[in-house]
User: What shape does this take?
Amino acid sequence: MGIRFIIMVNKQGQTRLAQYYEWLTLEERRALEGEIVRKCLARTDHQCSFVDHRNYKIVYRRYASLFFMVGVDGDENELAILEFIHLLVETMDKHFGNVCELDIMFHLEKAHFMLEEMVMNGCIVETSKANILSPIQLMDKAH
Assistant: This one.
């Protein structure tokens, strides 16, 4: 399948956005998020951005005060996932203008919509920022 989940957390480890592409109970999600967040936030800037956890490979990247963490299958290309994270941040930057934690909190539905345009059933299906943002811009015009 590829991507199993995408989690965005702040520096304090509070989840700001979570999207899962496999079924997990709420308790399993909460436990998994806690373990991954503790593991990734404890790492230094000099360590690589890939961590093995349970049966996942976690690829993460920090942008300002937000950590973007993507759980993938073990055979997934880590550099491609880092590029995907960068594309996601660039897309959010283009829409929000230098995306920050508050943008995610106050416009959670738009952040989820961007992810839904980019990823379907754990597979990256769209990489064009213009194509990702055009439905959101149409919705903004309607309001």
About this structure: The mean pLDDT is 95.
